[in-house]
Structure formats: structure tokens, C-alpha cells
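User: Reviewer 2 asked us to show a designed sequence for the structure in our supplementary figure. I'm pasting the C-alpha cells here. Could you produce the per-position amino acids so we can include them in the response letter?
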């Protein structure tokens, strides 16, 4: 994951949607205690910053030091660079002690994780019986029929440049392996749907597209997804000179559960 975003870290901060307070309020309402939260794949720290208003202490981790360089600094948030091969003992030493975490969140990064390894880490650090794991993704933006039609042509044309893991996002995490019990007050683990909105002009919107991992992968292979014809199509669909600010809506899909108790293959977790 880290290598895909090295060349777009600044764009990622500037153009990605902001998660709504309702999402965090819902998640926090499901944790009996609010002492410690761990945000996995924290990136620029967006989710960690929101968690910091609800939890006493937050740790954000990421495999990309470049992403962490842009993360929001707050008094009760610390950031840790976690290489993919960091052993469980390293997690305990640098991230959280065993059975000390009330909430683990994974914002738009769940599909990149080595799930057996991650679930072993989660089971180790979550509070026994009460720890909650929440993982969510946002899917592609919606604006209006004209812009969306151009967007979907571009998106489908970019399929060869997305990592296979991306299909989990397209599926809204519905078929993801998520071996948890429902949290209090719920009968299933989701996905629960939320949405967030961002105001953008055409330049902002095109910058969002350039922040895709698929955009950079295509470019590295000599393909410009936003070629002149495609940009002109977007401009015509947007209308005017592209300076009009439009509301961009991102659907969000949340999986949430507690009590990780299962066997993955031959490995008991």
C-alpha cells in the first residue's frame, strides 16, 4: 500500500473526503470505554484526529512514513511507522499493550491488510469481551448525471490499473471476511451506510482523480488516464468555465463488530 501513495501524498490530503461526525459518534457509542483507540492505516491522520475528540488517547499507524509526514498533530495522538513485517511483540512495544485497546479503526485501508496477521494483532490488543473493530470505506463520488457518466467511463477504463484488493471497496466490504459478533444494539455487523460531502470545483475534482493509486500506476506505465479528450469531456459535463463549485457526495460503508473468536485456516485466533 505504501508504495502506491508515495507520489500522491499531498494530493491525498487535499482532495479526499472528510468523514462525518455521525460516523464517529455511532462507532464510539458502541465502545463501553473510551480510553484508547488505534487507527490502522491512518495515512494523513484524518480519522485519528476525529477519534481524538472522543477517546483519551489515540495511536495512528501506517506502513508509509511519507503519509505520516502529513498527519495532523494533536496532544493526545501519537503516530507510529509500522513496517509490514513488524512482529506482534513489536506491536505490543510500539503501538499498544495486550488487552488495552477499546477500539480499532481502519478507514479506507481494510482492503490492503493481510487479514490473518491483522486479526491476530487485533485479538491480542483489544480489550477482552468489549473491544470493538470498525472498518469502513467510501466508494466513488456522485455529483450529477452528466459528470457521473464521464466519471464511470473513466473508472471502468482504469480497471486494469487498480490493485485486485480494490474489488473489496467496489463490493462495499459486503463479502469481506469479518468474523465478529454484532455490537450492542445491532443484529448484524453491516455494512452500515453513511455519507459525506465535499465542495469542489473542476480542478479539485480532477486533482482527486490524480490521487488514485490507479492513476499513478497508469502513469508509471505510460498511460495518462486524464488525457486531453477526457478532461474536455469533464469540462463540458461540469459546465461553465469549471469554476462552479459543486457538491460531491461519497457513500461510506461501515463494518463493525466485537468479540473476535474464530479459527482462520489452521491458525486459532
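Assistant: Here is a per-position design you can include in the supplement:
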Amino acid at each position: 500500500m505504501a508504495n502506491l501513495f508515495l507520489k500522491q501524498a499531498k494530493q491525498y490530503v487535499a482532495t479526499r473526503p472528510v468523514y462525518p461526525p455521525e460516523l464517529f459518534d455511532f462507532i464510539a457509542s458502541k465502545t463501553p470505554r473510551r480510553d484508547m483507540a488505534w487507527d490502522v492505516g491512518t495515512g494523513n491522520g484524518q480519522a485519528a484526529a476525529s477519534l481524538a475528540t472522543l477517546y483519551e488517547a489515540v495511536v495512528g499507524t501506517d506502513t508509509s512514513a511519507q503519509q505520516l509526514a502529513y498527519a495532523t498533530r494533536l496532544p493526545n495522538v501519537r503516530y507510529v511507522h509500522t513496517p509490514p513485517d513488524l512482529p506482534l511483540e513489536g506491536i505490543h512495544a510500539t503501538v499498544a499493550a495486550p488487552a488495552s485497546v477499546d477500539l480499532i479503526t481502519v478507514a479506507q485501508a481494510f482492503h490492503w491488510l493481510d487479514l490473518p496477521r491483522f486479526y491476530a494483532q487485533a485479538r491480542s490488543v483489544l480489550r477482552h469481551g468489549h473491544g470493538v473493530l470498525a472498518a469502513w470505506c467510501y466508494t466513488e463520488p456522485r455529483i450529477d448525471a452528466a459528470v457521473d457518466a464521464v466519471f464511470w467511463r473513466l473508472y471502468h477504463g482504469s480497471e486494469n490499473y487498480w490493485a485486485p484488493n480494490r474489488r473489496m471497496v467496489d463490493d462495499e466490504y459486503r463479502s469481506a471476511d469479518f468474523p465478529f459478533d454484532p455490537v450492542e444494539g445491532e443484529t448484524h455487523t453491516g455494512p452500515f451506510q453513511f455519507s459525506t460531502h465535499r465542495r469542489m470545483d473542476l480542478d479539485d475534482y480532477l486533482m482527486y482523480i490524480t490521487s488514485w493509486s490507479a492513476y499513478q500506476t497508469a502513469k508509471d506505465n505510460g498511460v495518462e488516464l486524464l488525457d486531453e479528450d477526457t478532461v474536455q469531456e469533464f469540462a463540458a459535463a461540469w459546465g461553465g468555465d469549471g469554476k462552479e463549485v459543486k457538491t460531491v457526495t461519497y457513500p461510506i460503508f461501515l463494518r463493525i463488530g466485537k468479540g473476535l473468536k474464530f479459527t482462520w485456516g489452521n491458525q486459532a485466533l
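For the response letter, you might also mention the following. DSSP finds twelve helices and nine strands in the chain. The CA atoms of residues 111 and 165 lie 6 Å apart.
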